[in-house]
Amino acid sequence: MLKIWGRTDSSNVQKVLWCCSELGLEFDRLDWGGKFGGNKDQAYLDMNPNGLVPTLQDGSFILWESNSIMRYLVDKYGQGRLLPSTPEGRADANRWMDWQLSVFNPTIVPLFFATIRTPEDKRDPKAVQAALEKTTQAWRIVENHLNGKKYLAADEFSIGDIPLGVWAYRWFNLPIQRPEQRNITAWYERLTQRKPYQTHIMIPVT
Ligand SMILES: N[C@@H](CCC(=O)N[C@@H](CS)C(=O)NCC(=O)O)C(=O)O
Q1: 51 C-alpha to center of ligand 1: Å?
Q2: What is the pLDDT along the chain (206 residues), one digit of tens a residue?
Q3: Distance, CA 52 to ligand 1 centroid (Å)?
Q4: Which of 9, 12, 69 gets mutated to test ligand 1 (max ligand atoms within 8 A of its CB)?
Q5: Main-chain dihedrals φ then ψ at residue 92, nearest 5 degrees
Q6: What span, in angstroms and rounded, lies between the C-alpha atoms of 158 and 179?
Q7: Looking at ligand 1, which atom is closest to the CA of residue 39?
Q8: C-alpha 108: how far from its chain's center?
Q9: Residues in a beta bridge with 113
């Protein structure tokens, strides 16, 4: 049985839970990090020296980094599922996963903290606006890419949709004025039809 350390409201944990559900994999999950703590305990740091969630255990194998965990699960248990069938399609999926971590996250995480994680009366409208502009600019790349496409890679749902798909739900539930994004909205609505997305992603944003 797979074991996953991580609280259900963490975006990075959610990626792994969503991925497991898409693959029909059962897992034991421990509430960890955030208000549950445990992530700075030495025994946990021995597994994951970052002191962050998620961490996966599969038998004697321990792995951290949410996108790497998903790639591992798809590689080991996917039997082709969640992976586009061509090298180009797989590269496309990988590209969006890398882009989420390296480019997109640094724009939306500050927006998330400036809104959801800051009490309403303490929010700084200028900080919110600045973060919103940067996030909108990043989403514009996704909006253009999705023109005429159903999903991010190879026109089929894949592992490449998961990292940004987690954030799409948050984006559409943040207390902000969103620009019109027809392609992203249609893609997001497609994701909301998926049972694993409903179970693991469409939960209160905290
Ligand atoms: N790059 C790492 C980032 C992990 C990360 O930042 N996790 C956050 C939650 S989303 C965390 O552990 N924060 C501290 C906490 O929850 O206590 C990954 O993708 O797994």
Answers
A1: 8
A2: 999 999 999 999 999 999 999 999 999 999 999 999 999 999 999 999 999 999 999 999 999 999 999 999 999 999 999 999 999 999 999 999 999 999 999 999 999 999 999 999 999 999 999 999 999 999 999 999 999 999 999 889 999 999 999 999 999 999 999 999 999 999 999 999 999 999 999 999 98
A3: 4
A4: 12
A5: -60, -45
A6: 26
A7: 17
A8: 12
A9: none
